UniProtKB/TrEMBL annotation, chain B:
One of its GO terms (cellular component) is plasma membrane. The keyword Ribosomal protein does not apply. One of its GO terms (molecular function) is transmembrane transporter activity. InterPro entries: ABC_transp_permease. This is Amino acid ABC transporter permease. It is a multi-pass membrane protein. The keyword Transmembrane helix applies. Keywords: Cell membrane, Membrane, Transmembrane, Transmembrane helix. It is found in: Cell membrane. The chain crosses the membrane at residues 6-27, 34-55, 61-84, 91-111, 131-157, 188-207, 213-232, 239-255, 267-286.
Length: 358, 328
């Protein structure tokens, strides 16, 4: 069979498939190579054997059950955030406000815990998740209405709301929700033990966290790729004006995508409170929103890829915790590696597009 | 009175790094390139500038190093977005995070190491003037340069041929192209120059305002600078006003910490962002078609002043900001 390509030449299908495969491989391999080169250069400047560092980054998270548990507890909110971000990314929005949505989710999740501490824990957890989801959604809708109602770019609205959210968290920690006795910016008082999400044995792994994350991811995948709603959202992302002419309520779909992302970010914030920190701390999100943004820049609007990439990113971060002790280098190399991966992916994407155009 | 003069002087000094950062961002954005990496660039500039100054024991070399770092990050942004066609937002965001992490990693050995700083340089005679001397002439070279930078950028943008070209790049790149301006090359130039200024802003923290280096030393200043550029409507004087306003808020926060314990300083940290959002929303709302129609239906005596006020307030972003330019 013959296919006519853009240049008007006839090429056999086999050549095409081969070119496709090469394209696909290049898209997968180039980012890794690029990131590896960049990170290795950085490692060499501080006189560390790169292989030792990579071994810890890649396998450190699997060295003990405790570390594996930590990895899962980091991957879960990350999956929620990145999964939510595929929605906004599909709608063509850069939801840089996701950090604030996580923080607001965490704050809202604290409300029922403080108001009704005597309810049975399972009921309280449900309330807490519901409040957290609503809090994250509220914050996302605030950014959405600034964008869609007042024309404030969602990037700057989101950034501003991020700082506002962490300002509110700090205010609560130092003010109304401060610890009995001494107010401390380190966080509110720890929750009573029976309110912590149940864990596996002595690990910090709460099975509910990955379950919620995976269910949410499947829902996102279903909604985005199997429902008309997802198709419309993606149409809006590709060309809002055109979608609008064709009868897709573009503004509504964008707001809904933001709300969905905020909801998931709020769940992530709730997990941080109930499952990870068991208190409200100033840095309650611990950057999962930002890492989620990196993940979504790698996977674009394809939720299926969120799972492996989020797990790999969480592996790097958890593995890197051991670096200061074992190799005497700072753990932020994990962030360098994550950033380098995305940067290299952007480079290879750009090179491919350029080659295709040429 | 004297205390007020000292405080005013402190405000001018505290705003200096922000002046460098915002003027850098302004150059870049006026030419149509949004450099979202500011936070990472400032952080890496601060770390790199401090390290270079420490190793060479030369403050000017430190600033040179920081400027090179800023220019290099801007160059990467340009290659990826202008040449390889990737989203400026995406690339800038990744570079911001990467810069922050790199500064933490590479800067670990120099955390809290004492190092050189910009020497105090009161201007002879002028420094002895009452009040004015205290406010303006008892600083160091860096701060004097920040005073000069704003009028220079303003003059360059609005009173030179070069500035006209730069503004055309941000508003109507196709028109500039038709008049023979090499759009992409000029955008590279402006973005890299702007990036160098942002790098210098980083060194201004580590070598002057907050001497030394520590983990996430300049946390959030890049985002604040980006917010101030918008708050200032891409006009050099207004942007500078935003910088001084923010610095004044910071100084007030420092003072109030002593007098009114209990008011968290975070309130002041958040203020520029809330202001930015409010200003952006206001600008967009007053310049909307409905609002303009309402103004047109006002009684004639009111219409003129209101319309003028709105046109003064409602400064739109450069029309081609963040957009790709394809040669026609």
């Amino acid at each position: 069979m013959q296919i006519q390509d853009a240049g008007g030449q006839l090429t056999s299908r086999a050549t095409y498939q081969l070119a496709d495969l090469a394209d696909y491989l290049a898209r997968l391999v180039l980012p890794f190579l690029g990131a590896l080169v960049l990170t290795t250069v950085v490692l060499l400047t501080v006189d560390v054997a790169p292989l030792d560092a990579y071994r810890i980054l890649l396998f450190g998270a699997f060295s003990t059950p405790i570390r594996f548990g930590d990895m899962v507890m980091l991957a879960s909110p990350l999956i929620l955030c990145a999964g939510g971000l595929t929605l906004t990314f599909a709608a063509g929005l850069y939801n840089l406000g996701i950090e604030g949505q996580v923080v607001l989710g965490a704050i809202a999740a604290m409300i029922p815990l403080r108001l009704f501490p005597d309810l049975p824990p399972p009921l309280l957890w449900m309330l807490s998740f519901a409040f957290g989801a609503a809090g994250g959604m509220l914050w996302a809708l605030l950014a959405a209405s600034l964008r869609l109602g007042a024309g404030v770019n969602e990037i700057f609205a989101g950034l501003g709301l991020n700082f506002l959210a962490s300002g509110i968290a700090l205010y609560l920690i130092l003010g109304p929700w401060r610890r009995e006795g001494s107010a401390s910016s380190s966080g509110t008082a720890l929750l009573p033990r029976e309110l912590w999400l149940p864990t596996v044995g002595s690990l910090r792994l709460a099975p509910l966290a990955p379950i919620i994350a995976l269910v949410a991811l499947v829902v996102v995948w279903w909604v985005l790729s199997r429902m008309r709603w997802g198709l419309e959202v993606r149409a809006v992302g590709l060309n809002g004006a055109a979608a609008d002419r064709l009868g897709v309520p573009a503004v509504k779909r964008m707001a809904q995508a933001m709300a969905g992302c905020g909801l998931l970010a709020g769940l992530a914030g709730t997990l941080q409170v109930l499952g990870v920190f068991h208190q409200l701390i100033p840095n309650i999100s611990s950057g999962v929103g930002l890492i989620g943004l990196l993940v979504v820049l790698l996977v674009l609007a394809r939720p299926i890829w969120v799972l492996p990439v989020a797990v790999v990113f969480a592996t790097f971060t958890v593995g890197s915790v051991q670096l200061p002790l074992t190799l005497g280098i700072d753990s932020s190399i994990a962030g360098v590696l994550q950033g380098a991966l995305v940067l290299a992916a952007l480079v290879s994407r750009g090179l491919m597009q350029r080659r295709r155009r040429a | 009175m004297n205390q007020l003069a000292i405080d005013l002087g402190a405000v001018l000094a505290a705003a200096a790094p922000l002046i460098f950062a915002t003027m850098g961002a302004l150059l870049s954005e006026r030419s149509g390139v949004i450099n979202l990496s500011l936070d990472g660039t400032i952080m890496l500039g601060a770390m790199g500038g401090f390290t270079v100054a420490l190793v060479t024991n030369s403050v000017p070399l430190g600033f040179g190093g920081a400027a090179l770092i800023g220019a290099a990050i801007a160059l990467i942004l340009c290659i990826l977005s202008l040449t390889l066609g990737q989203s400026q937002t995406a690339v800038g965001f990744v570079l911001a995070l990467l810069g922050i992490e790199l500064s933490s990693f590479l800067g670990a050995p120099v955390v809290r190491v004492p190092g050189p700083s910009v020497p105090f340089l009161p201007i002879p005679l002028l420094a002895d003037l009452p009040i004015v001397g205290v406010v303006f002439f008892r600083h160091n070279l860096l701060i004097y340069l920040s005073f000069l930078l704003v009028p220079f950028i303003w003059w360059m943008l609005f009173h030179t041929r070069m500035g006209l070209t730069v503004r055309a790049l941000g508003e109507r790149p196709a028109a500039a192209f038709a008049r023979g301006v090499p759009v992409t090359r000029m955008r590279y130039l402006m973005c890299i120059l702007g990036g160098a200024l942002v790098g210098i802003a980083g060194a201004a923290y580590s070598l002057d305002l907050r001497q030394g280096w520590s983990y996430r030393h300049t946390f959030g200043m890049g985002w604040i600078a980006l917010a101030i550029v918008i708050f200032g409507g891409w006009r050099p004087w207004r942007v500078a006003f935003g910088c001084y306003l923010f610095a004044a808020l910071e100084i007030v926060a420092l003072r109030s910490q002593r007098t009114m314990a209990g008011v968290p300083t975070q309130v002041f940290q958040v203020a520029p962002f809330v202001l930015m959002i409010l200003v952006l929303a206001l600008v967009n709302l007053v310049s909307s078609p409905q609002a303009l129609r309402r103004i047109a239906s006002l009684p004639p005596t009111l219409r003129g002043p209101v319309a003028m006020l709105v046109s003064r307030l409602a400064v739109a972003a450069p029309a081609a900001l963040g957009q790709r330019f394809e040669r026609p």
